[in-house]
Write a structure and sequence with these properties.
two-stranded antiparallel sheet, alpha/beta, 10 strands, 15% strand
Length: 305
Amino acid sequence: MSASFTLTTPVVLLVFNRPETTARVFAAIRQARPPRLLIVADAARPGRADEAERCAEVRRIVAAVDWPCEVLRDYADVNLGCRRRVASGLDWVFDQVEQAIILEDDCLPDPSFFRFCQELLERYREDRQVGMISGDNFQFGRCFGGDSYYFSRYFHIWGWATWRDRWKDNYDVDLAKWPQAREQGLLAEILEARAERREWTKALESSWRGRIDTWDYQWVFANWVARRLCILPAANLVSNIGFGAMATHTKVAGELADIPSRAISFPLVHPAKTARNREADRASRHRSSRRSLWDALRDFLGGRG
């Protein structure tokens, strides 16, 4: 990250019960020195041995703010679960700020991630075709032209940024619009492959029925309903370090675990127009490696570890 760059965008940190990964992500945030830090924490689940102490240790780690910074905290007193905690936490975040860079406790960013997000938040603030900016590139070194990023129909959330109006527009953790969208064939407009449409139908149906404790399928759906695009960088800017037994969802390491991050070059080279890169999207694929549908979808999205 350039010595001349100053981070002015608020940063959000979503935490729970993993002191080890939280400490590493918090160290990266400390290096970036955001002027506002918003911390969202869930509480321990009843009957889980040692979880209360692990949650307390996480809160001690993120209390060590030693740079000039306004810190806002939304700490749950009882366990809300992934679905309700993240959704309600981000509702609270966007009651406080107009735009934000968002990291979970297992998403370790390269320093250039913060500048990348900040510059593109400013550039696309008024372009409602853009739903969010991601720090993730799962193309494994493959490039698509000389631009610094491309526009995709896929919304990866291992390190991302968005604006209040996009989040508040039609995000609904309960997916009330899904039955109508299902009947009207929304996924046929968004996804070209029949197998992919089947998988997403199952994922959204299960989330709507409350069978999956998640918040991120709802965010993807909100963007698809609005026909928005996601910005994905030409270089992977965030490494997910949270795969393993302590993870909420990504318990089995696959190809997306610990993908190395690297710096992106500045000044950014911008695409000529805001339009989906179909070649890049076709190259994206599920890498299930004998895991369940839900794990494959979550990895593909870049979901919560």
